[in-house]
Amino acid sequence: MEKVSHMTRNAIRRASTMEIPPHAKRNMQELFVNFCLILICLLLIYIIVLLM
């Protein structure tokens, strides 16, 4: 268990020091927004189906 937490900490440290290009960051934000919109649409469809 200790080894796993140590590996996790190292991975997080490595990931936080990685330099992300601005366009990659923007792509990730757009992907996240699209994902949220799809979830909202699915939820709305589900509610509409329940109401019928």
TrEMBL record:
<dbReference type="InterPro" id="IPR005984">
    <property type="entry name" value="PLB"/>
</dbReference>
<dbReference type="GO" id="GO:0031966">
    <property type="term" value="C:mitochondrial membrane"/>
</dbReference>
<comment type="function">
    <text>Reversibly inhibits the activity of ATP2A2 in cardiac sarcoplasmic reticulum by decreasing the apparent affinity of the ATPase for Ca(2+). Modulates the contractility of the heart muscle in response to physiological stimuli via its effects on ATP2A2. Modulates calcium re-uptake during muscle relaxation and plays an important role in calcium homeostasis in the heart muscle. The degree of ATP2A2 inhibition depends on the oligomeric state of PLN.</text>
</comment>
<dbReference type="GO" id="GO:0042030">
    <property type="term" value="F:ATPase inhibitor activity"/>
</dbReference>
<keyword id="KW-0703">Sarcoplasmic reticulum</keyword>
<dbReference type="GO" id="GO:0033017">
    <property type="term" value="C:sarcoplasmic reticulum membrane"/>
</dbReference>
<keyword id="KW-0496">Mitochondrion</keyword>
<keyword id="KW-0812">Transmembrane</keyword>
<dbReference type="GO" id="GO:1902081">
    <property type="term" value="P:negative regulation of calcium ion import into sarcoplasmic reticulum"/>
</dbReference>
<feature type="transmembrane region" description="Helical">
    <location>
        <begin position="31"/>
        <end position="51"/>
    </location>
</feature>
<dbReference type="GO" id="GO:0010459">
    <property type="term" value="P:negative regulation of heart rate"/>
</dbReference>
<dbReference type="Pfam" id="PF04272">
    <property type="entry name" value="Phospholamban"/>
</dbReference>
<keyword id="KW-1133">Transmembrane helix</keyword>
<keyword id="KW-0472">Membrane</keyword>
<keyword id="KW-0256">Endoplasmic reticulum</keyword>
<keyword id="KW-0597">Phosphoprotein</keyword>
<keyword id="KW-0007">Acetylation</keyword>
<comment type="similarity">
    <text>Belongs to the phospholamban family.</text>
</comment>
<comment type="subunit">
    <text>Homopentamer.</text>
</comment>
<protein>
    <recommendedName>
        <fullName>Phospholamban</fullName>
    </recommendedName>
</protein>
